[in-house]
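Review session, final week

We close the course with one last complete record, chosen because it touches almost every idea we covered. It is Interferon lambda receptor 1, a protein from Colius striatus with 204 residues. Go through it on your own first, then we will talk.
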Amino acid sequence: PGHVQLPPPQNVTLMSKAFDMILTWSPGEGSPPDVTYTVRYESQERMDKWMKVPHCKNIHRTSCNLTCVLPNLFVKVRARVKAVLGRLQSPWVDSQFKEYHLDVELAPPVLNVNVEENLICVNASFPLATCVEIFSWMYDLNLWEAGSADKKQYEGNFRKNTVTIDATALRGNYCLSARSSFQSIDFKHSKFSQPVCVLLNQKG
């Protein structure tokens, strides 16, 4: 009887999380359980040209990672999603515009700490998609004696660089923590990572 439409997806949001640009949504009210979703995106460089996203066609999940399909990380984009079930489709629902370079939200790096002789060697690994490794992601490192509020800071280290700290004069339990940083219009920072603690120069 007439043309039946599926309920459109709700809460369609383009957001950045942990270095990624992700479209999220929730099922429309009264959606059948086996409904799938298809996503497209549009860039301000080519308005009215909605591009397909091959890995987000007829998917069951309610999110789509767009980071590495974006043609230009310095241009605003928006995305849209529709529900599909057999021959039934919902209307498209559009997100707001976002630009990766301006709107990216950072995640803390993971620290790898080695103590050799009297040196602490620290490397930070970042949970990055390959396509965004081109940016000069940096990290700030804090070192402090466990229980003390006095932190020594090592700021602005390039992502791939090792920070080497002379530990000759340090005795006891020391902790390290880092945050990612990135300069777009101004500096952005992630939260600090969970502390990694090491025992230094314990005799006996």
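Two points worth writing down before the exam:
The chain has two domains: 10-99, 110-200.
The chain has a mean pLDDT of 94.
Good luck, everyone.
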